Here is the input.
Amino acid sequence: MLFNSLSFAVFFPIVLVFYWLLRSNLRYQNILLAIASCYFYACWDWRFLFLLMFSIGLDFISGIKIENSKSNKEAKFWLTLSIVINLGFLGFFKYYNFFVESFAEFLSGIGFNSNIGLIQVILPVGISFYTFHGLSYIIDIYKKRIKAERNFIDYSLFVSFFPLLVAGPIERATHLLPQIKKQRIFNYNDVVSGLKQIVWGLFKKIVIADQCAIYVNEIFSLHYGLYGSTLVVGAVLFAFQIYGDFSGYSDIALGTARMMGFDLLKNFNYPYFSRDIAEFWRRWHISLSSWFKDYLYIPLGGSKGGNWMRIRNTFIIFIVSGFWHGANWTFIVWGALNALFIMPSIIMKTHRNNLETVAQNKVLPTVKEFFQMITTFTLAVFAWIFFRSDSVIEALRYIRRICSYTLLKFPQKDVLWLFIIIVVFMIVEWIGRNSNYAIENLTLNNKFVRWCFYYTIIAFIIYFSGEEQTFIYFQF
Here is the structure.
């Protein structure tokens, strides 16, 4: 069931109505949401619902066992057991064929023939996200940051809450579980705000991402016969496709949750207005970046121990982050590139220079800030080429074609109309860059103008709506 589907447009209002009808009974509300979340997940493939419930049950029991352990050794046993099983399932479904193929290629390279068989493995949707939910929960219990949850329904809802189940944001038990256990009060302003964020998310997905995807798919599949200028257009459009697609999903998830009285973690904070790569990664997929910082980077030693320690740990988290995205060397190279891009600021300790929103309390950025944003965006686009390509070889061929004399020729694709929409979209994002989402506090004093703006967005969504397009991050 896609957020941009007719089925969700029917499903969510029904759940919302019954949910608020039960507002006087928190237990029934949570049961309803848990059942609705299971139904939502089963719509993808009901068979993997059993895997989800096994993961939930494993971590629920492990959390209690860890808390009740009479020794650190016993607690560590249950922690290790849960981590190994969770990562084992994730590794099997997501990486089995990758490791087998890579090992076979290695053997072939040193002169051995290998007949290691591959198997057809269907990747359960959302497995990377709900696995990380569970891992953070049991680690936090082991570190004594939280108490183990004793209510199975409440814990199940924490992991399977349908707005965030298949593509995040990756929530922490310390943030979401207290909201699940607390009575939610109907707030008209939150409902209106949530609905506005859903509409803006749909605009990002359907009008920006899906329209960019049409040209991106064609350009990347036929890059060997296109001008370098056309390939630059394809790379730039993919940057806006993946941003519109994933941040659009996050907006819909946050808006949906807010309409039910939940406050989910902000996942995107206008990353393409970043002035350096360090700032970009504080603003892109925030819940994943912070997860790796808290549960991998800091345990590895963080920034302690001098430059070598910072360099090593930075490369580790970026390469692991790349591998988390998929079983392909392209993602690993993409992660390594971002580590290289961020390295100068890590070594010179300037990676925390740009903590405030760009051009704070100003209409326009300075010339320096403008060129910093352009440079950062260019580096991000370059790395996205590897992310989007089918293989590292294809990515290198794509880049080599860009660097040919055809870069100076006029692009072969007429996408001027789409770039005009993107420019208007980015202007709205720029104006709203201090808000949780771009149109949250958009000042349109004239009621007629305000409603014309909203109806225009809706009209664009309806006009460009067609065949339902899945979200990019569902494959991760």
Remarks:
- The chain has two domains: 6-186, 189-275+354-475.
